[in-house]
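Hi X.,

You mentioned you wanted examples for the new student's onboarding notes, showing what a folding record looks like when two proteins sit in one file. Here is a clean example. The first protein comes first, with its sequence line followed by its structure tokens.
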Amino acid sequence: MKNRICVIFTGGTIGSRALGDKVDLRCEDKSFLLELYTSRYGNTVEFDELRPLNILSENVQPSDLEKMADCVRSVNLEDYDGIIITHGTDTLCFTANLFSQIFCDIKIPLVFVSALYPLDDKRSKGVENFANAITFIESVDFGGVFVSFENHGESCKIHLASRLIAATQISGEYNSILNVHFGEVVDGSFIYNANPLNPTFSQLRQKRSPCAAKQLCMDMVTIQAHSLLNFDFYRFTEVKPKAVMVQLYHSGTVCTEGKEANFKNFLKYCKNLGIEVVIAPVDSHARTYGSAVGLTEACITAYDISFEMATVKVLLALGSGKSIEEELATNNFFEKLH
């Protein structure tokens, strides 16, 4: 162990302060997070700090993500036990999934850390999430991209970044797809979750090929299935996307009857315009409902990955000039459940 960790600060709530009934970014050269961590846990770890940007994550642009990625690429991995990226919670899921792909072959742990409240709010778990990320880094001998996050009333979970799904509404809690987290930190010790869906340590130690697609493209529209969704309002008369992603219900279904709400009518409309249509998520092992018969053959289908991961893969495919089908079929960092 080198007892040395590179910390990349990017802003977010964990890098903010409470100002009355508002929350906004801190502007400081010295990290309040590191001060709090050292005061609670001591100074046995040496930290090097990098600050490529300081933003609220809901405002993230493709250029910001590229700055973060370039910052990671600039780190000499031989000098560190791991890398920690502080990040806002609003878009944590997207960035974590993205980095799990473009840094799928990283040789040391890269761990995202966030907080639902600013560090000067007693409800904040930012310091704990940071400390538990360090515990995890010190406990493993493999690389990869992970997330350290403690939900209310739970122990801190360590998630495979490739399986993190969107935060729950209002409460902002994070989980992995199918609620299978990679492990947890309890009383200062990392405990692996020996669920058969999780990769083993041996698998994580194996060399992984780099991700072929590394550029993003924003030319995509996402639509979430819900009752009485009127597809007729999605008309691309002025600006035409390269792809449309439709998030299906949990059972892999969407309305396929009626007129305005009929996805099959919308599918024909998109195909006439030359727009790729992607549906997700779809469990390859599940039975097909009558309403969904023929859909997987008529669309590009994202099998056995979260909708969040499918979104990342499609944007990477579009930005890198790759086939969407081929990119969805890859398994760069254990995102596939089957």
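Then the second protein repeats the pattern, sequence line and then tokens:
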Amino acid sequence: MSEYLYEQTLNFKQVANLKPVIMKNVMLLAFLAIFGSATIYAQGTVHAACEATVVGYTETRNVSNFFTFADLKSASTPTTATQLSNILGSPYLVDNFQKGSLFYGEELVGTFYARYNGYNKELEIKKSNSSEETAKALIKDEKLKFVFSNQDELKFVEFMDKKGNRCDEYLLTKSTGDKYQLMQRPVITYKEGKKAANSLMLDVPSKFVHRTELYVLDLSTNIASHVPTKKSKLIDYFDESEKIQIATLIKKEALNIKDAKDLVQIFDFANSISQDIAFKE
């Protein structure tokens, strides 16, 4: 069986005929990636407002280490170190690669070094922190998450943006729970500079602009929604059994729903309510 898995390209019909234990392992391994040279995988397009096509590759060296990474995008903005030095700000959430753990669901895949390119919306990842190793973009899958050593957690999430577009990107987990998770979306845009119109004016340099948006992930649907900025709309987001207690908490603690720390408190409380209701039922 192991020789068959190693030599043949598996499809879903073939996988269905395998024993359940083998099938589980194959389905897990089919979504992850190891560094290689043969370009055989193509990532599909996402909503045009959020993402572009990514083309990557897969290489099979060992069936027990079958991973998939995508080639980094070639962006329209400058990408070399020299060019980036002339631009204010950074396309990265954090410039340096940071050590962390890659998970598929709750199963640990391994330890890697990663950084998030918020402009290209890619998690750049490599096996070592060597400057000589070329980073690859981690394949986008909702079961994948990367937990950095400082406990920051990035995971690929489907969400509805403020304009109603259905998108999927890497979001930062700000709170955990069995029903709700508060997520932060790093938004990094590139603003082209301008040459001075005359000698009395100064050049306006190009720059990367950073901002964030807050979303709440409903674990019953696995779709995140933009957090309302009005208290009444935020309260309406919750179930009828939770609304009165949430409203009381906000008033009693004088919570600011535009503040991420206060929102964490609100959703942590909402999770505790849902747990109590589930326990009673």
